[in-house]
């Protein structure tokens, strides 16, 4: 049966090759397009997940509403507001820091957690700029994020060797014109000043992050804020990052603090990924149609031109099932060979794309491409499945041909 199927394809070699090329190009397009999109998504997710934490616990800012003041001024009385309360009550403290520590230590889903103290500051030497100062515990911070992997000079250990030390971003270093082991001056909103020695430089690859954050020891930040045990945030790392949203929702039910997972905080960015997935699915549908049309066209022509051969096969014992099987094998051969060639072309194309440099002169980067095995498995499955499905209609038509009618028609 395989021999007969191959023989019929070789008899119309030009059409078979064109169909094979169509399948290969469609599969290659899927592999390269998926590789680019998933590579971009992986980079952004890695930046969002590992730069900071899986879950952040911070003070909740509440809006002033009429309901918030019910029973406060005149209990059991109806109050009519001339000007209803509005705006936001900003909070800078967690409700129960040590209670959170106990709960997090007891939760088996938590891999590590670290306290932080965040302050808005102005930083500068000859130039000045606004920045966010993160007071961190270096040892604990190392357990919840991959920040140390992004240090191009120094280490988190250096930050723990004393007070008045800082790690800044490469963009901030460039804008301020300071060097490693140099000094920067910061000023808090209430006028406190401090000189911090630079013991490390980080580079996340995001200009906003690389120029907007300063990291220092939490003791230094607490001395600037005026509270020896002041903590504004707790960052948490879970054993399973996929549980982050569920765990955050559970914790938020028993506290007035804001508990937000990385995906909840970056919902707008992740919605772009959903749009990309829709585009990728649309591309998949187009590829399926191209493959199906090509295979249907060539096999339909084979049925029309090989009617005499089909009649001979039917007359010597081929039944309808055998005829269907013959054409399904042809579709499977075209789909398998075309998809394998397409996967190879797609892989080579991804290798080339990964060498392309993007960005401006200051941020030259190479395209990030994903080589996940699932991309290649899905690409192969799509091509072969589309080939098999599109082969069925011509196969069914061939199985219904009656030898006596073909012979009469030929006479």
What is the domain tally? 2
SSE topology string: HHEEEHEEHEHEHEEHEHEHEHHHHEEHH
Poorly predicted parts: none
In terms of structural class, how would the helical and strand content be classed?
alpha+beta
Q: Please report the total strand number as a whole number.
A: 14
Outline, from the CA principal axes?
elongated
Mean pLDDT, as a whole number?
A: 78
User: What's the gyration radius in Å?
Assistant: 33 Å
Helix content: 40-55%
Largest sheet, in brief, is: 6 strands, mixed, barrel
Distance between the termini: 28 Å
Strand order of the largest sheet: 4-5-10-7-9-8
Count of helical stretches: 15
Provide the β-strand percentage band. Answer: 15-25%
What is the topological layout?
Blueprint: H1 2-11, H2 13-51, E1 55-58, E2 62-63, E3 88-89, H3 97-106, E4 110-124, E5 128-136, H4 138-144, E6 151-153, H5 156-159, E7 165-169, H6 170-176, E8 183-187, E9 193-202, H7 207-212, E10 213-217, H8 218-225, E11 233-238, H9 244-252, E12 258-261, H10 262-265, H11 267-305, H12 307-315, H13 320-353, E13 357-358, E14 365-366, H14 373-399, H15 403-410
Parallel strand pairs: 5-10, 7-9
Antiparallel strand pairs: 1-11, 1-12, 2-3, 4-5, 4-8, 4-11, 6-9, 7-10, 8-9, 13-14
Question: What report would you give on this structure?
Answer:
By secondary structure, this protein is of the alpha+beta class. The protein has two domains: 2-48 and 269-410, no CATH class; 52-74 and 87-265, no CATH class. 54% of the residues lie in helices and 18% in strands. It has 15 helices and 14 strands. The strands form three sheets. Strands 4-5-10-7-9-8 form a six-stranded mixed barrel, surrounded by four helices. A hairpin with a 6-residue loop joins strand 13 and strand 14. It is elongated and about 100 Å long. The chain starts with a helix and ends with a helix.
């Amino acid at each position: 049966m395989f021999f007969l199927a191959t023989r019929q394809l070789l008899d119309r070699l030009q059409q078979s090759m064109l169909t094979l090329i169509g399948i290969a190009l469609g599969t290659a397009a899927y592999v390269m397009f998926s590789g680019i999109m998933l590579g971009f998504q992986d980079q952004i997710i890695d930046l969002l997940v590992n730069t900071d934490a899986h879950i952040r616990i911070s003070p909740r800012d509440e809006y002033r509403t009429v309901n918030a003041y019910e029973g406060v001024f005149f209990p059991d009385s109806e109050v009519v507001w001339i000007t209803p309360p509005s705006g936001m009550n900003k909070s800078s403290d967690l409700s129960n820091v040590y209670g959170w520590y106990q709960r997090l230590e007891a939760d088996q889903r938590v891999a590590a957690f670290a306290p932080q103290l965040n302050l808005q500051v102005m930083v500068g030497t000859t130039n000045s700029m606004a920045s966010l100062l993160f007071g961190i515990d270096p040892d604990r911070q190392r357990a919840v994020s991959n920040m140390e992997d992004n240090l191009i000079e120094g280490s988190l250990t250096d930050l723990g060797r004393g007070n008045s030390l800082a790690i800044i971003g490469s963009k901030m270093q460039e804008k301020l014109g300071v060097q490693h082991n140099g000094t920067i001056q910061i000023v808090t909103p209430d006028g406190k000043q401090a000189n911090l020695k630079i013991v490390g430089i980080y580079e996340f690859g995001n200009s906003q992050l690389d120029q907007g954050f300063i990291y220092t020891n939490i003791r230094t930040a607490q001395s600037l804020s005026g509270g020896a045990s002041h903590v504004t945030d707790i960052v948490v790392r879970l054993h399973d990052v996929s549980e982050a949203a569920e765990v955050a929702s559970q914790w938020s039910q028993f506290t007035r603090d804001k508990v937000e997972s990385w995906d909840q905080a970056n919902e707008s960015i992740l919605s772009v990924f959903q749009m990309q997935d829709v585009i990728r699915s649309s591309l998949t549908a187009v590829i399926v149609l191209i493959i199906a049309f090509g295979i249907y066209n060539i096999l339909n022509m084979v049925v029309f031109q090989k009617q005499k051969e089909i009649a001979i096969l039917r007359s010597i014992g081929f039944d309808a099932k055998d005829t269907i099987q013959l054409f399904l094998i042809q579709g499977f051969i075209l789909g398998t060979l075309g998809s394998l060639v397409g996967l190879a072309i797609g892989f080579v194309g991804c290798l080339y794309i990964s060498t392309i440099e993007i960005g401006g002169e200051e941020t030259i980067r190479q395209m990030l491409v994903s080589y996940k095995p699932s991309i290649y498995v899905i690409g192969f499955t799509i091509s072969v499945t589309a080939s098999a499905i599109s082969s069925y209609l011509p196969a069914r038509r061939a199985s219904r041909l009656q030898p006596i009618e073909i012979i009469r028609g030929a006479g």
